[in-house]
Amino acid sequence: MGLSRPHKAGNGVSTRWVLGLCIASFILGVLVVNRFWAIPDPVTMDREASSVEKHESRPLHPIDNCEKKDASFQTGDILSQVSQTHDVIMTLDKTISSLEMQLAASRASKVNNEEGSPIVTKSGSEQFKERQKVFFVMGIITAFSSRKRRESIRETWMPRGEGLRKLETDKGIIIRFVIGHSATPGGVLDRAIDAENEQNKDFLRLNHIEGYHELSSKTQIYFSTAAAKWDADFYIKVDDDVHINLGMVGSTLARHRSKPRVYIGCMKSGPVLSQKGIKYHEPEYWKFGEDGNKYFRHATGQIYVLSKDLATYISVNRHILHKYANEDVSLGSWFIGLDVEHIDDRSLCCATPPDCEWKAQAGNPCAASFDWSCSGICKSVERMEEVHQRCGEGDEAIWHTSF
């Protein structure tokens, strides 16, 4: 009873043995860890960390630069593609315009042949080859009774004879008096024009019966005929009682040469006159809304300019373009809804002296002069020489002007 026995665990294993096994296991674990998972030297760790940082930092800058270069390349590539697309569109636009011009010339030639135009025409294919490339065509709208007006123009601002031919070859400027034929072709009136043309060689004869109320139709046929005969950048309509400075006209048009669809003139918007029996009465006034309304913006009829595409448009569609009572309104209506640039150029509607003189002295010489009160130069036969002397740019100006 005096000595106590060693304490045993519940399973019969001595506590001392359990303690010994725990210590032995701990020592064995430390040895294994030290063997396979040694603690690295601090210096070595710093070197390895530095090496890793350098290794990781190296590709960062090239990647960043590559991304920037890729973005720059992609941006430049997109801009290049946009530019190329724009060039292609412009080329297609010019090609379409050229094809439409050829179609217009073919149609005009066919109509002239079928309807018996006084102009002797050739086949469409031959006409394409012979169509002269020029800067602008100026058609001076005239009448059988306007012989003296035509002479006043020939004696002032319009070259004649060899000067007219030189203007065509050297400057690419075509000027013609535009007239149709009488209701009795081959009669006295037509023979008089034929004789005048034989002497001056400055007429463009239209397949059109002359008449004051047919000016809208005459305008359509003029642009169609001119487009079929000459390949011009611009086509101009001017009345035979207006003074023109050709050099100024050429300089003005040269600024708009790169534009595809331009309509140039002195833009206005007058009232729609519904009352019968008055000048400029509009029988179809109801189409423009309520009484007292104004017309849409359009160029005054004394002079206006159309670019090639617009003259082609008229030529191709002239059989379906509606004609109002007033020719300038009709022309303006044909471009409603089209992508057309209206250019309001006040140098094309200067008044006669002293207005044109003041503007010339101020450095704004006039391209065209007339009196608003007379819708042309009042008493133009008597006054054209005076206007030319006081408002003219000089007879040599056209030859020294570059286009």
Automatic annotation (TrEMBL):
An example molecular function term from Gene Ontology annotations: hexosyltransferase activity
Which cofactors does it use? Mn(2+)
Q: Where in the cell is it found?
A: Golgi apparatus membrane
Q: Which domain of life is it from?
A: Eukaryota
What Gene3D superfamilies does the database record attribute to this sequence? Answer: 3.90.550.50
Pathway where it operates: Protein modification; protein glycosylation
> GO cellular component annotations, sorted alphabetically?
Golgi membrane
Task: Kindly give the membrane topology term recorded for this protein.
Answer: Single-pass type II membrane protein
One matching Pfam family: Galactosyl_T
Q: Where are the transmembrane segments?
A: 17-37
User: Domain named DUF4094: which ranges?
Assistant: 14-109
Q: Which UniProt keywords apply?
A: Glycosyltransferase, Golgi apparatus, Manganese, Membrane, Signal-anchor, Transferase, Transmembrane, Transmembrane helix
Q: What is the E.C. number?
A: 2.4.1.-
Q: What does the similarity note say?
A: Belongs to the glycosyltransferase 31 family.
Q: Known PANTHER family for this protein? A: BETA-1,3-N-ACETYLGLUCOSAMINYLTRANSFERASE, BETA-1,6-GALACTOSYLTRANSFERASE GALT31A
Question: What's this protein's name?
Answer: Hexosyltransferase
